[in-house]
């Protein structure tokens, strides 16, 4: 008699195939999550860049305010953190809709609108305008401003980001880092 040869898969082979398939699916899901996180960070970086560019252009357009000494330049007073001040206070007069404004009123209006944009578009965002000759510390942007009268004006915009493990992304001092720093230029 001839022995029957079993053909087909054993239960062990099926289990191994299911485990390999599950590992492949988990890897695909992890890759998709990483791609979504990167897309979100890129969108925030783009928004921060647009905010910094817009503020730099507003400052350049208000040349009268920009020629003032640092103590009188209202733009240099901007240090807004949406986490600690969720609703910015509006100035007495907003320069909108063709209303004639002086340099100081226009600067206050620009600062208010920038605060609103940061509050609306960046998660717990922050914006700072200052003079800073050394933007970078250890290869990373920093919030601290260390410039004197000859240092360029800089617009720094950032948000409270997170690492892939969910912990806050911070610098060596424990502060969250700016996402964008745009030099407006050396004035005076």
TrEMBL record:
Domain called Type IV pilin Tt1218-like: residue spans: 30-110
TM annotation in the entry: 14-36
InterPro entries cross-referenced by the UniProt entry: N_methyl_site, Pilus_4_PilV, Tt1218-like_dom
Keywords for the protein's UniProt record, in alphabetical order: Membrane, Transmembrane, Transmembrane helix
Entry keyword Plastid: no
NCBIfam families, alphabetized: IV_pilin_GFxxxE, type_IV_pilV
Protein name: Type IV pilus modification protein PilV
């Amino acid at each position: 008699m001839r022995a029957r040869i079993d053909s087909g898969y054993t239960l062990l082979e099926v289990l191994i195939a299911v485990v390999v398939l599950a590992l492949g699916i988990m890897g695909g899901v992890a890759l998709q999550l990483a791609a979504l996180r990167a897309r979100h960070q890129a969108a925030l970086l783009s928004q921060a860049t647009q905010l910094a560019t817009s503020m730099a252009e507003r400052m350049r357009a208000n040349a009268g305010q920009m020629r003032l000494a640092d103590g009188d330049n209202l733009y240099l007073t901007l240090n807004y953190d949406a986490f600690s001040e969720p609703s910015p206070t509006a100035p007495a007069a907003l320069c909108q809709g063709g209303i004639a404004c002086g340099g100081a009123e226009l600067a206050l209006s620009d600062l208010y609108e920038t605060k609103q944009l940061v509050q609306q578009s960046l998660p717990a965002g922050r914006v700072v305008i200052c003079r800073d000759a050394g933007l970078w510390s250890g290869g990373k942007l920093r919030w601290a401003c260390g410039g004197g009268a000859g240092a360029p004006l800089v617009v720094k915009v950032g948000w409270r980001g997170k690492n892939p493990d969910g912990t806050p992304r911070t610098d060596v001092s424990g502060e969250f880092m700016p996402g964008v720093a745009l030099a407006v230029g050396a004035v005076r």
